[in-house]
Amino acid sequence: MSTTASAELITVRDYLRYAVSRFTAARLFFGHGSDNAWDEAVYLTLHTLNLPLDRLEPFLDARLLPHEREALLDIYHRRCQDRLPAAYLTHEAWLGEHRFYVDDRVIVPRSFIAELLDEQLAPWVDDPWAIESALDLCTGSGCLAILTALAFPNAEVAAVDLSPEAIAVAERNVADYSLYERIELIRSDAFTKLEGRKFDLIVSNPPYVNAESVAALPPEYLHEPELALGSGEDGLDFTRIILREAKKHLTDNGILVVEIGHNRDALEASYPTLPFTWLDTAAGDEYVFLLHAADLPG
Description:
Order of helices and strands: HHHHHEEHEHEHEEHHHEHEE
Mean pLDDT: 93
CATH superfamily of the largest domain: Vaccinia Virus protein VP39
Largest sheet: 7 strands, mixed
Number of helices: 12
Strand order of the largest sheet: 5-4-3-6-7-9-8
Shape: elongated
Protein backbone atom coordinates (compact mmCIF):
# COMPACT_ATOMS: atom_id res chain seq x y z
CA MET A 1 0.00 0.00 0.00
CA SER A 2 2.81 2.42 0.90
CA THR A 3 4.59 1.67 -2.39
CA THR A 4 1.45 2.45 -4.37
CA ALA A 5 0.80 5.61 -2.39
CA SER A 6 4.39 6.79 -2.78
CA ALA A 7 4.19 6.29 -6.53
CA GLU A 8 0.88 8.10 -6.99
CA LEU A 9 1.09 10.91 -4.42
CA ILE A 10 3.35 13.73 -5.55
CA THR A 11 2.71 17.02 -3.76
CA VAL A 12 2.06 18.18 -0.21
CA ARG A 13 -1.56 18.68 -1.22
CA ASP A 14 -1.75 15.05 -2.34
CA TYR A 15 -0.38 13.80 0.97
CA LEU A 16 -2.72 15.96 3.01
CA ARG A 17 -5.72 14.59 1.15
CA TYR A 18 -4.42 11.06 1.65
CA ALA A 19 -3.84 11.61 5.37
CA VAL A 20 -7.32 13.01 5.96
CA SER A 21 -8.81 10.01 4.18
CA ARG A 22 -6.73 7.56 6.22
CA PHE A 23 -7.49 9.28 9.53
CA THR A 24 -11.21 9.42 8.80
CA ALA A 25 -11.36 5.78 7.70
CA ALA A 26 -9.47 4.73 10.85
CA ARG A 27 -11.96 6.67 13.01
CA LEU A 28 -9.19 8.30 14.97
CA PHE A 29 -9.99 10.34 18.05
CA PHE A 30 -8.69 13.89 18.19
CA GLY A 31 -8.22 15.64 21.50
CA HIS A 32 -4.51 16.23 21.99
CA GLY A 33 -3.99 19.54 20.22
CA SER A 34 -6.46 19.29 17.35
CA ASP A 35 -10.10 18.26 17.06
CA ASN A 36 -10.37 17.11 13.44
CA ALA A 37 -8.57 15.06 10.79
CA TRP A 38 -7.58 18.05 8.63
CA ASP A 39 -5.80 19.98 11.39
CA GLU A 40 -4.03 16.84 12.56
CA ALA A 41 -2.90 16.02 9.02
CA VAL A 42 -1.61 19.56 8.49
CA TYR A 43 0.32 19.52 11.75
CA LEU A 44 1.92 16.11 11.24
CA THR A 45 2.79 16.92 7.63
CA LEU A 46 4.40 20.29 8.30
CA HIS A 47 6.28 18.99 11.32
CA THR A 48 7.60 15.96 9.47
CA LEU A 49 8.77 18.10 6.55
CA ASN A 50 10.42 20.61 8.92
CA LEU A 51 8.24 23.41 7.61
CA PRO A 52 6.79 26.33 9.63
CA LEU A 53 3.66 25.15 11.43
CA ASP A 54 1.79 28.35 10.52
CA ARG A 55 2.67 28.42 6.81
CA LEU A 56 0.83 25.81 4.75
CA GLU A 57 -0.31 27.69 1.64
CA PRO A 58 3.10 28.33 0.02
CA PHE A 59 3.97 24.63 0.17
CA LEU A 60 0.76 22.95 -0.96
CA ASP A 61 1.91 22.25 -4.49
CA ALA A 62 5.54 21.52 -3.65
CA ARG A 63 6.78 18.17 -4.96
CA LEU A 64 8.29 15.82 -2.40
CA LEU A 65 11.53 13.87 -2.45
CA PRO A 66 11.40 10.08 -1.98
CA HIS A 67 12.65 10.18 1.62
CA GLU A 68 10.08 12.87 2.46
CA ARG A 69 7.26 10.76 1.03
CA GLU A 70 8.46 7.77 3.04
CA ALA A 71 8.58 9.82 6.27
CA LEU A 72 5.04 11.11 5.76
CA LEU A 73 3.60 7.70 5.00
CA ASP A 74 5.34 6.30 8.07
CA ILE A 75 3.95 8.89 10.49
CA TYR A 76 0.44 8.60 9.00
CA HIS A 77 0.66 4.82 9.40
CA ARG A 78 1.79 5.04 13.03
CA ARG A 79 -0.99 7.49 13.84
CA CYS A 80 -3.59 5.09 12.42
CA GLN A 81 -2.10 1.73 13.39
CA ASP A 82 -0.87 2.51 16.91
CA ARG A 83 -3.45 5.20 17.72
CA LEU A 84 -0.69 7.30 19.29
CA PRO A 85 -1.51 10.94 20.03
CA ALA A 86 0.24 13.23 17.57
CA ALA A 87 2.27 14.77 20.39
CA TYR A 88 3.88 11.41 21.14
CA LEU A 89 4.82 11.03 17.49
CA THR A 90 6.45 14.45 17.24
CA HIS A 91 7.61 14.72 20.88
CA GLU A 92 6.20 18.19 21.19
CA ALA A 93 3.06 19.88 22.45
CA TRP A 94 2.03 23.51 22.29
CA LEU A 95 0.22 25.70 24.79
CA GLY A 96 -0.34 28.96 22.94
CA GLU A 97 3.05 30.01 21.57
CA HIS A 98 5.00 27.82 23.99
CA ARG A 99 6.47 24.50 22.92
CA PHE A 100 7.15 21.63 25.33
CA TYR A 101 8.87 18.28 24.92
CA VAL A 102 6.56 15.34 25.67
CA ASP A 103 6.57 11.57 25.48
CA ASP A 104 4.43 8.83 26.96
CA ARG A 105 5.86 9.38 30.45
CA VAL A 106 3.58 12.40 30.81
CA ILE A 107 0.06 13.40 29.89
CA VAL A 108 -0.15 15.54 26.74
CA PRO A 109 -0.46 19.18 27.96
CA ARG A 110 -3.93 20.63 27.39
CA SER A 111 -4.84 22.92 30.26
CA PHE A 112 -7.20 25.88 30.25
CA ILE A 113 -5.06 27.34 33.03
CA ALA A 114 -2.43 28.08 30.39
CA GLU A 115 -4.53 30.79 28.76
CA LEU A 116 -5.28 32.32 32.17
CA LEU A 117 -1.57 32.44 32.97
CA ASP A 118 -0.97 34.12 29.64
CA GLU A 119 -3.11 36.97 31.05
CA GLN A 120 -1.24 36.79 34.40
CA LEU A 121 -4.50 35.76 36.10
CA ALA A 122 -5.92 39.25 35.70
CA PRO A 123 -7.96 40.67 37.37
CA TRP A 124 -7.45 38.25 40.27
CA VAL A 125 -3.77 39.17 40.51
CA ASP A 126 -3.38 42.96 40.64
CA ASP A 127 0.43 43.05 40.52
CA PRO A 128 2.19 40.13 38.81
CA TRP A 129 5.48 41.17 40.42
CA ALA A 130 3.94 40.70 43.87
CA ILE A 131 3.71 36.92 43.34
CA GLU A 132 6.94 35.77 44.98
CA SER A 133 6.22 32.08 45.44
CA ALA A 134 4.07 29.66 43.46
CA LEU A 135 3.28 25.96 43.37
CA ASP A 136 2.29 23.83 40.40
CA LEU A 137 0.78 20.66 41.83
CA CYS A 138 0.72 17.63 39.47
CA THR A 139 3.20 19.32 37.16
CA GLY A 140 3.58 16.49 34.63
CA SER A 141 5.73 17.86 31.81
CA GLY A 142 6.32 21.04 33.82
CA CYS A 143 4.37 23.17 31.37
CA LEU A 144 2.24 25.06 33.89
CA ALA A 145 5.22 25.60 36.20
CA ILE A 146 7.10 27.14 33.29
CA LEU A 147 4.16 29.32 32.24
CA THR A 148 3.75 30.40 35.86
CA ALA A 149 7.40 31.43 36.04
CA LEU A 150 7.06 33.37 32.78
CA ALA A 151 3.85 35.09 33.92
CA PHE A 152 5.21 36.10 37.31
CA PRO A 153 8.85 37.16 36.86
CA ASN A 154 9.52 37.56 40.59
CA ALA A 155 8.22 34.14 41.60
CA GLU A 156 10.13 31.10 42.76
CA VAL A 157 8.11 28.10 41.56
CA ALA A 158 7.83 24.64 43.09
CA ALA A 159 6.75 21.97 40.61
CA VAL A 160 5.43 18.78 42.24
CA ASP A 161 4.61 15.37 40.81
CA LEU A 162 4.48 11.85 42.22
CA SER A 163 5.91 10.25 39.06
CA PRO A 164 9.71 10.17 38.72
CA GLU A 165 9.25 9.72 34.98
CA ALA A 166 7.24 12.93 34.80
CA ILE A 167 9.87 14.77 36.83
CA ALA A 168 12.50 13.68 34.29
CA VAL A 169 10.46 15.13 31.42
CA ALA A 170 9.83 18.32 33.39
CA GLU A 171 13.57 18.69 34.01
CA ARG A 172 14.16 18.70 30.27
CA ASN A 173 11.54 21.38 29.67
CA VAL A 174 12.76 23.55 32.55
CA ALA A 175 16.26 23.36 31.08
CA ASP A 176 14.93 24.23 27.61
CA TYR A 177 13.48 27.44 29.05
CA SER A 178 16.61 28.12 31.18
CA LEU A 179 14.43 28.34 34.30
CA TYR A 180 16.30 25.84 36.48
CA GLU A 181 17.27 28.65 38.90
CA ARG A 182 13.62 29.58 39.50
CA ILE A 183 11.77 26.26 39.24
CA GLU A 184 12.34 23.57 41.86
CA LEU A 185 11.19 20.09 40.83
CA ILE A 186 9.95 17.98 43.74
CA ARG A 187 8.79 14.37 43.73
CA SER A 188 5.93 14.27 46.22
CA ASP A 189 2.54 12.70 46.77
CA ALA A 190 0.46 15.90 46.75
CA PHE A 191 1.62 18.17 49.59
CA THR A 192 3.59 15.50 51.50
CA LYS A 193 7.06 16.97 50.86
CA LEU A 194 5.92 20.59 51.30
CA GLU A 195 5.49 20.66 55.07
CA GLY A 196 5.73 24.22 56.37
CA ARG A 197 5.93 25.84 52.94
CA LYS A 198 3.51 28.56 51.85
CA PHE A 199 2.83 30.07 48.45
CA ASP A 200 1.21 33.19 47.07
CA LEU A 201 -0.30 31.10 44.27
CA ILE A 202 -1.13 27.44 43.83
CA VAL A 203 -2.17 26.16 40.39
CA SER A 204 -3.11 22.58 39.61
CA ASN A 205 -4.37 20.56 36.69
CA PRO A 206 -4.83 17.31 38.65
CA PRO A 207 -6.29 13.97 37.55
CA TYR A 208 -10.05 14.50 37.26
CA VAL A 209 -11.58 11.87 34.96
CA ASN A 210 -14.36 9.92 36.67
CA ALA A 211 -14.49 6.13 36.65
CA GLU A 212 -17.25 5.90 34.05
CA SER A 213 -15.35 8.14 31.63
CA VAL A 214 -12.05 6.31 32.23
CA ALA A 215 -13.76 3.06 31.20
CA ALA A 216 -14.92 4.68 27.95
CA LEU A 217 -11.68 6.44 26.97
CA PRO A 218 -10.68 6.10 23.28
CA PRO A 219 -7.41 4.30 22.47
CA GLU A 220 -5.42 7.54 22.12
CA TYR A 221 -5.90 8.33 25.82
CA LEU A 222 -4.88 4.85 26.92
CA HIS A 223 -1.29 5.66 25.91
CA GLU A 224 -1.17 8.37 28.58
CA PRO A 225 -0.11 7.59 32.17
CA GLU A 226 -3.12 6.23 34.04
CA LEU A 227 -1.95 8.07 37.16
CA ALA A 228 -2.55 11.39 35.39
CA LEU A 229 -6.13 10.69 34.28
CA GLY A 230 -8.48 8.93 36.69
CA SER A 231 -9.34 10.20 40.16
CA GLY A 232 -11.90 7.96 41.77
CA GLU A 233 -15.56 7.28 41.11
CA ASP A 234 -16.56 10.91 40.58
CA GLY A 235 -13.20 12.25 39.39
CA LEU A 236 -12.73 14.43 42.46
CA ASP A 237 -10.50 12.37 44.75
CA PHE A 238 -7.39 14.47 44.15
CA THR A 239 -9.35 17.72 44.13
CA ARG A 240 -10.60 16.83 47.63
CA ILE A 241 -6.99 16.52 48.80
CA ILE A 242 -6.24 19.95 47.36
CA LEU A 243 -9.24 21.55 49.05
CA ARG A 244 -8.40 19.88 52.35
CA GLU A 245 -4.72 20.82 52.39
CA ALA A 246 -4.35 24.02 50.35
CA LYS A 247 -5.13 26.56 53.07
CA LYS A 248 -2.09 25.71 55.17
CA HIS A 249 0.13 26.08 52.10
CA LEU A 250 -1.18 29.49 51.03
CA THR A 251 -0.13 32.89 52.31
CA ASP A 252 -2.87 35.00 53.88
CA ASN A 253 -3.73 36.64 50.55
CA GLY A 254 -2.89 33.59 48.45
CA ILE A 255 -5.11 32.15 45.74
CA LEU A 256 -5.81 28.65 44.49
CA VAL A 257 -6.56 27.89 40.82
CA VAL A 258 -7.62 24.35 39.88
CA GLU A 259 -8.89 22.72 36.68
CA ILE A 260 -11.56 20.04 37.17
CA GLY A 261 -12.83 19.12 33.69
CA HIS A 262 -16.56 18.46 33.48
CA ASN A 263 -17.02 18.05 37.22
CA ARG A 264 -18.42 21.46 38.20
CA ASP A 265 -21.85 20.18 39.21
CA ALA A 266 -20.40 17.33 41.26
CA LEU A 267 -17.90 19.63 42.94
CA GLU A 268 -20.48 22.26 43.89
CA ALA A 269 -22.77 19.55 45.23
CA SER A 270 -19.93 18.21 47.39
CA TYR A 271 -18.92 21.66 48.67
CA PRO A 272 -22.12 23.73 48.74
CA THR A 273 -20.69 26.37 51.09
CA LEU A 274 -17.45 27.11 49.24
CA PRO A 275 -17.60 30.36 47.22
CA PHE A 276 -16.08 29.05 43.99
CA THR A 277 -15.21 31.65 41.38
CA TRP A 278 -15.43 30.05 37.94
CA LEU A 279 -12.95 31.56 35.50
CA ASP A 280 -13.76 32.30 31.87
CA THR A 281 -11.75 30.28 29.36
CA ALA A 282 -12.04 29.67 25.63
CA ALA A 283 -14.26 26.66 26.39
CA GLY A 284 -16.52 28.36 28.93
CA ASP A 285 -16.68 29.06 32.64
CA GLU A 286 -17.12 25.60 34.12
CA TYR A 287 -13.64 24.07 33.97
CA VAL A 288 -11.38 26.15 36.23
CA PHE A 289 -12.18 27.49 39.69
CA LEU A 290 -10.46 30.02 41.92
CA LEU A 291 -10.61 30.27 45.69
CA HIS A 292 -8.94 32.72 48.07
CA ALA A 293 -7.02 31.37 51.03
CA ALA A 294 -9.51 32.95 53.43
CA ASP A 295 -12.37 30.99 51.86
CA LEU A 296 -10.77 27.56 52.09
CA PRO A 297 -11.58 25.11 54.88
CA GLY A 298 -9.03 25.25 57.66
